[in-house]
Amino acid sequence: MLAAGDDVRLIAGGQTLVPLMAMRLARPKRLIDIARIAELAFVRGEPDAVVIGATTKQCILERDPLIRGQVPLLAKVMPFVGHAPIRARGTIGGSLANADPAAEIALAAIILDATVVYRDGDKEVEIRAFDFLTGPMMTVLSPSSCLTCVRFPIWREARMGVGFHEVSARRSDFAFASAGAQIALDENSACRRLALGVGAVTSVPLRLDTLARTLEGREGYAFEGGAAEQSKLRDAVAAAIAEIEPLSDLHASADYRRRAATTLLMRAIADAYRAAKGRATRAH
Amino acid sequence: MRIELSVNGTAHPLEVEPRMSLLDCLRERLLLTGAHAGCEHGVCGACTVLVDGVPIRSCLMFAVQADGYAITTIEGIAPGPGELSPVQDAFCETHGLQCGYCTPAMVLTAHALLAGNPAPTRAEIVEAISGNICRCTGYAQIVEAIALAAERMRGLNQPAPAP
Amino acid sequence: MSGPPFRFISSDRRVREDRRFVVGKGRFAADVVLPGTRHVAVVGCPYPAARILAVHTAEALAVPGVHYVLIGRELAAATQPLLAGLDTPKVPRRPLAVDVARYAGEWVAAVVADTRALAEDAAEFVRVDYEPLPFVLDGEEAFASDSPPVHAEHGSNVLLDRTFTWGEVEQHFSQSPHQLSFRVTWGRSSTVPVETFAVLASWDPWREILDVYASVQMPRFAEQAALALNLPGSCVRVHNDVDVGGSYGVKRGIKHAVVAGYLSRRLGFPIRLIEDRLENMRGGDGHGPERNFDVAIAFDERGVIRSMKMRALDNVGAYAGRSPFQLGKPIGAIVGPYRIDSVQYRAIAVTSNKTVQEAVRAFGQGPTNYAIERALEEVARHRKLDRLEVRRRNLIRTEQFPYLIPSGTTYDSGDYHAVIDKVVARADYPGLIAERDRLRAEGVLAGIGIAACLEPSGANSTFEPLLNPKNETTAYTDSCRINVDLSGAVTATIHTLSAGQGHETLVGSVIGEVIEIDPDRIRVVRPDSLASLPSQSPVGSRMAIMLGGAAFHAAQKLKQRLTAIAAHDLKIPPGQASYRDGDVCDEKNPTNRRTWTELVTIAHRHFHRLPPGTEPGLAFTHVMQVPGGGRLPTADGRVQMYPCFAFEFHLLLMAIDPDLGRPEIRRYFVGHDCGTVINPKIVRGMTMGGIAHGIGAALYEEFAYNADGQLLAQSFMDYVLPSAHEIPPVEIVHHVTPSPHTVFGQKGSGESGYLGAPAAIASAVNDALRPLGITVNRLPIKMAQLADLVAAARARNA
After folding, report:
1. Which chain B residues contact residue A86 at CB under 8 A?
2. In CATH terms, are C18-25+477-625 and C32-133+197-274 the same topology?
3. Minimal Cα–Cα distance from C527 to chain B, Å?
């Protein structure tokens, strides 16, 4: 049906598409409602990943025990996604396909290097979230394709923690800047593994790999030490952010986004570290 | 398109244009005018109805998508003619409204909150109504209404204290 | 004036209107259904200024279900221009632009179709040929003589430029040891109710009546609609029992009613025009003041202000109805609550190619209070005094009331120092300071906000003759009619629409108090405009005073009649008859009495028992003039503005994240003295709601434009309304200083909170920024811009 013409669009939760239609900015002649296709709504555990069906509602992502346990960063960002009535209808696939630069789910997907799966006609395509999101409100999806599921890699480390912060005009508005971190510590609380990213600052959420590599291996005091250590950490974060060319708009200047991203990332790292430290090493 | 909407326990067979929103369908076809249009782009929450007990924005749902769910509007809340639910009565007690335009949405949202959380904290009440804009009250008396309703509902059906 | 103890006044009664709203049985304009109604969608001009060369309607008319496309020329030929307040005949205003469109979003055509959706579909097919014209957006630029005039025939963008000098301003300035000056800017925002403007108009050609169901808050709405439509006033019936989903000033709706009314007469069926949110934000003409204040003050070593010069320039948008009067109303409280001896006030209203302004809650007093309070803050900084102490030294003292201010208004009563003392005690001011300092030590920006402001109430429109000598309006009325029927049931009337202010409850309480029966037994109804007495609608915090006053006097007449009937029937002198709880007895022999039921029966049925010359039945009317009103201004512009002055004192503690700029109000106290409180629940709701509006105007809301004249905040995604998260708990501290002018000592409270919150928040932010040596001189204070200022200051200081 989708291949029939580009006046046809998919609708699941409709929380982004319907406002666009109400303002007559989107004008599909036909809508295909996939919200109730049971095969597309699921949360499934696999050995190395949690796979989430595209039409899984956002309120499920908040509460599902598998996600809370195995993909805590995704669960962490969910309360910031709109308001409860929006999450009651909005879907994970809808959010990713909409590709708003400030979207929290997209940021989590980028940080965790999730994989997006979509169908185009008979083909099934797997693509990294990093490649799936191509620009502001832009993805690789063609008018005839349909996102089917998202695969979030699981970290097996025992001492894992996550952090997420964002800043917006009101709670739950589109963020001006956001930052997320997932950290795993070894028995001595040194950083064994780290994934970081910032959102709403650029047209697509950004994973900060170089910074992560720099911080991996550092001892615990680098993260929870005194003013001097904090200052060093902040310098490293700021240096990474300095390489970004942030957006500038009615709400915030590029400079603001740069400074806010730095502050938020510091806080996210600190939260992630504290959470991870609080976890006992699993007995082997 | 032919659909059947179950609203406040009654089934309504309807023929609707696909592009008709659930809000417009409730208001114009079923004459249930308690849900209100405030922005029609999903921000103000004045259009809130319950779908299977969960608050959603009826301006962001097409009527054809609502087929098969149990829809509750404000008209389905009062227990009988001339009566008020404990939540509705609490809103009257604290004067948790002025112009009344956001009120059906607030009452429904409060009902949904208390159905799942009989003892919400102030922060939980604020979070629950944070998607509903009120321009009259500044929210204080609305939050008090919901807290009062919660307190009263917890007190219902309790055994009488021992003499 | 009646004094306490009251039986019903001031008691914590429920607001009876609430019952119908909590069950969803409000009757808003969009809920009214008339068979055969057709729907309107409007076509807006995309340019900030453009000549309209041609409007092509054929394609739109060809869309199935479309009945008509109305354009400006046709409407202008059949109707009168909308009324302006100032004397500006070369600045005509029409509901649909005629030859020139003057702001982006201005209505150019109206499409009528079977459904709203079809009308919107067809509106896209209306093709308009425009020739873009030069435009001006900034108020100061518009004031400059070389700016392109929005109205070519008017010759400039200046609608008003009048300077008033009250007292020896120059002498006081030269005599004062200190002077300072500053500019602050109140950015363009508005009240933005959740319900947009809606009107349903239906012309009955046999009865020759235009029925109008509209969400409106507008004095003389029926008459103005009739005038514009070339109809006698008695041919327009406005239904006052329509519920209004919030207005707070802006729902004037004349242009909407003219379009809908004309179309109904022209086409022969009911016409419904409901703004969608985009039409409302851009073209509904409901924006609020956008004002620069240039203030200079002269003061002594103790920080006592002697004289003030204020230049207020307001950018009213492309046309002007009553909005320029928002520069006039504050004249009635131009010195705020302070003992300033002389004032020079220059009021400038300019046109620009922006959306039109309408009346916003407090009609200009909120912005003016912001400027006045900034003056006090600047004096404190200059003299290195505590900001609270500077207020105390400048405030009018309670023994000085009634107090005549330089511009000719007398303030009725107040005890400002007592209110402040109460708030300071409740808030533990030293504790707040300690908390602020503790936050600062933690690296957070923290500030205490203070504002002492007046709420002029009772309303009067003497700003009309003040700013437009051709307009000699001095009457400002409200009315009430009470009827007791044969069964003894009491029914009273209100002659205006309500937006949740609790007027029915107010009237019931007042009448119940006077005739000593339970207010819940009193039915209150709203007849339509043809059956109504004069009313000026609920503006200017006037209804407690005016509607309350009219209801009181009508109820007194009822009570006196019942007493007189009883005295005559008991054959006793009138002075010996005592009225109690609806019955009247002989004071000297109390068993000798007539009950309510007996008196009602006599009045309705036993003419032979009535005192000679008495009208049968029990129907009483009172039409009331505003207390203290009725005079024209003097030659130098002095006149009594509003009669009563409520007082509010805001004290808050704010923390600001220095990196993110995110504000958080930690503690909020407000002292409120609005005289006798008729219904505590209603007054509290007004104050809380007003503070929420004020927080919005101070921190979140702005109608921002880009350089191309396009409104950037066209939806609720960009125009940010505070949710429950953004409004902190507020503690209200009460005080009662009754007004000598009103029946129970009540003053108005409908604008409370909004009058002082923006000033208080600005004060808190600037206190928080003080250690960095920067100030913010503009509202709203947006998060990112604040953070940018802080970052720049830190870089400079490093």
Report:
1. 42, 57, 131
2. no
3. 19
Residues of B in contact with C689 (CB under 8 A): 98, 134-138
CA dihedral B28, B31, B34, B35 (to 10 degrees): -30
- Distance of alpha carbon C227 from alpha carbon C204, whole angstroms: 18
Mark yes or no for CB contact B98/C753 under 8 Å. Answer: no
* Amino acid at position C77, single letter: A
The Cα C388–Cα C400 span in angstroms is 20
CATH number of the structural domain C32-133+197-274: 3.90.1170.50
Arithmetic mean of pLDDT, A242-268: 94
Give residue A15's domain range.
Answer: 7-153
- Interface size B-C, in CB pairs within 8 Å, comes to 185
Q: Side-chain half-sphere of B6: how many Cα atoms within 13 Å?
A: 8
Measured CA distances, A146 to A52, A123, C666 (Å): 14, 11, 47
CB within 8 Å: B60 and A171: no
- What are the pLDDT digits (tens) for C142-176? 999 899 999 999 999 999 999 999 999 999 999 99
The burial of C323, by beta-carbon neighbours within 10 Å (0-12 exposed, 13-18 middle, 19 or more buried), is given as buried
pLDDT at A284: 38
User: Which tens digits make up the pLDDT trace of A177-216?
Assistant: 999 999 999 999 999 999 999 999 999 999 999 999 999 9
Same domain, A132 and A213: no
The answer on pLDDT for C679 being more than 70 is: yes
Residue with tokens 């041919």: C235
Chains linked to B by 3 or more Cβ pairs within 8 Å:
A, C
Rounded to two decimals, the ipTM of the complex is 0.97
Most B-contacting residue of A25, A30, A83, A98 (CB-CB within 10 A), to test interface: A83
- Residue ranges and CATH numbers for the domains of chain B are 2-76 (3.10.20.30), 86-155 (1.10.150.120)
Residue with tokens 């003040």: C466
In CATH terms, C18-25+477-625 corresponds, of 3.30.365.10, 3.40.190.10, 3.40.50.2000, 2.60.120.560, to 3.30.365.10
Mean pLDDT of C591-595: 96
Q: Do B97 and C31 touch (CB under 8 A)?
A: no
Q: How distant is the Cα of B89 from the closest Cα of chain A, in angstroms?
A: 24
Predicted model pTM: 0.97
Based on the structure, what is the number of domains in chain A? 2
Chains that touch A (3 or more CB pairs under 8 A): B, C
